[in-house]
């Protein structure tokens, strides 16, 4: 409580956890609406109504739909690649095919439909704000997988400096395969991500 010109004013302090919970609630409502209506046909009014929050609360957290799309993309992939970062510190690191299989399973069980991720990529083609988020996500994925690849190559007996030199190219390939998994899971009815990960094993596991 503070005093201003002799008047008592109650200051309400909102925790960062509370603010994050609100942002996640808004994002969840947006994901549901994007999945049901499609990104282009979803309005801020739809998101506001689905969230059960006031318009003022929504705009206190996000400037508009583009910022919500970017937030959804960043948080979804951040959670996914947190597992990659954990794998890099495991002794010994899992084989690349095992890691791809783990990521494929994580994507398949995620709360966000893979088709929505593809919609986000489509939006990124012509939307600079969403494109910036897509590039941030790619860099995070490449960096996380680069750390993992360097650790795995070193575990296979490669000199550490050589492992770090070779890791970026391998990480680029793995990111491309993960993106291909997402695309095929969205478009191919009988796509089996676990089977594809297993088929890639011989190629990926070659040091």
From TrEMBL:
Pfam families: TetR_N (PF00440)
HTH tetR-type domain mapped to chain residues: 20-80
Portion annotated as DNA-binding: 43-62
InterPro entries: DNA-bd_HTH_TetR-type_CS, Homeodomain-like_sf, HTH-type_TetR-like_transc_reg, HTH_TetR
UniProt keyword terms in alphabetical order: DNA-binding, Transcription, Transcription regulation
Membrane-crossing residue ranges in chain numbering: none
Gene Ontology terms, MF aspect: DNA-binding transcription factor activity; transcription cis-regulatory region binding
Domain of life: Bacteria
PANTHER family: HTH-TYPE TRANSCRIPTIONAL REGULATOR BETI (PTHR30055:SF234), HTH-TYPE TRANSCRIPTIONAL REGULATOR RUTR (PTHR30055)
Protein name as it appears in the record: Transcriptional regulator, TetR family
Gene source species: Propionibacterium acidifaciens F0233
